[in-house]
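Recall the central idea of this unit: under ordinary conditions, the amino acid sequence of a chain determines the structure it adopts. In this exercise we apply that idea directly, starting from the sequence alone.
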Amino acid sequence: MKSNNSVQIDIVVLGYNSNTCKSYLEFMYRNGYKVSKILDLRIIGNRRVVRLIIRLFGVSITWAILESYRKFRHRITKSERVFANLFSNIKWHKRTNYHLYSNSVETVFLNSINDPILFEKIKIETGKVFLFTGGGILSKEIFNIKDKRILHFHPGIVPDIRGADCLFWSILIKKRPGITGFYMNEGIDTGDVFITKEFLLPVIPRTLVESLKITDEDIYEYLLKYYDPILRAETLIELLENLKIKDNDINLSRLPSYNQDIIAGETYFFMHRIIREKVIEKILK
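Accordingly, the structure predicted from this sequence is:
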């Protein structure tokens, strides 16, 4: 672990509370990188009951109440804890301490990922490059902000595999997972590509699945939560390491990239359960 003498990267992380965000930050930290800033995006929604709680207690306490409620609704089972450790020793189920990964952290409360507040935050930030970590589909207005670029790591090799459930479509069609890093635009996974990386097919012990009575639905959920984020983070680290080796200048705003052929490739939708089961069967050994 090289975290004692960290290299600061000029990038603002759009810190959505997700395993994808956690894996990006943890992998960068373990490889000796810190980010210039993290916007801690706390999406509270705009439901009537939420607005009522905000009026009574304020936005910070409302967020704490919502977080407690989410944890109560989704209690981590033994099988999930075991599966979570198959691919990484990241402490997935602990709240992310953003101050470990950046010296500048700002909390931003939002109704949704496309709250005008976020638009204004991105617009006035001195940083030019942002890392998307989830939370929904960004509005096209954000991509029109002058001199701002948003990086995204997509679980499929574009243009062949765009859209939803691309981890599983990749395994079905390409016979292995793949990640594409691109600058986001208003299209569906159509941005300018700066890195692609393919991975070996994951292996899940069938004996483990049977002993813990893990269902195919569980495997589907767990792969998205604990495997997919690792592939994205490993691709990010490869990008950073390659930049550092070449000229020691990690400038993420001007990466060599190429345009996608928008007409080529396919955009996939969520995979049907029956097809998904066939994909899962391929990785049980």
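The chain has one domain: 7-283.
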